[in-house]
Amino acid sequence: MKRKKARNKKGAFSAVLLLLTTLGLLMIGGVAIDLSHAFYVRSQLQAAADSCALTGAYYLSNLHPSTYDHRRSEEMARQIARRNFIDGYLMDDAGDRTELVYSCQTGFKGPQFCQITLTHKVCTSFGRLVGVNYLPVTVVSKAGAFVGTKSVAPNWLQNLAISHRVLRSREIITDPQNKEFNSYFVSEWKSDNNPDIKVGATIVTAGKGDLNSLQARKVYNVAIVRGGDPKESMPRTSEIIGTVSIMLDVRSSADRSTFRIVEGGVIKGQPGTPRYSGFLTSDDMDFAIRNGHWRVALVQ
Q: Would you say the pTM of this structure is higher than 0.85?
């Protein structure tokens, strides 16, 4: 009888131990399932935050974003957020389970940044057994709008550089002795064999050449250089601030000709901040605003 009672006690203890072990394994498995579900929801949340940040940055693509731009950026970011599915449901940033925090950093010339922080409460399945109903998941995404520093590939430009002021007068004058001198042939390259150029960073110097070397009514891609103060003569060494396609119209001499601008001659290029040195005219800034190429990219 004593041996039988001892066996019964051991059996009961083993059963309790087995039950506790099983419950422990179930809880660990349940926690693992809840955590894996939370990681899955986190990937959805990150994709939503990235799309919101890129959208917000896109609407900040301006050298000097206004209050309206800021308001529009946040409005569109929140609108995109509501179109995303999180954990099987359309996300509503005004709801109890999901919170969206919008912020932006802007400055003159850019880059402009939009940051989105999303926090979502993931419902648990097995965590409820221990009083954990939600697992909070937070993600952060930051996107920037970068104004393009345009790059020009070799062999793209004719070796003629025209002042930005010529775009209004539409008359090329390459004679440096003329007080209206506004264009020159570039000494750094011959014919159309130009080197790699970064608009806003490459300096060129006046060289020899005449307009008789160019054909009338043929399209030429040429550099636009910073012409300096309108009250002073054009500098012989200057910075390339853009490119344009032109067609010579009426050539009155080897150093004077009228021309027409051909649409589509502005180069797009790499992300970055445009760099200007020395005197910056309103025409320079107007050119940058009209032809600056903006790109939006994730930075965080």
A: no
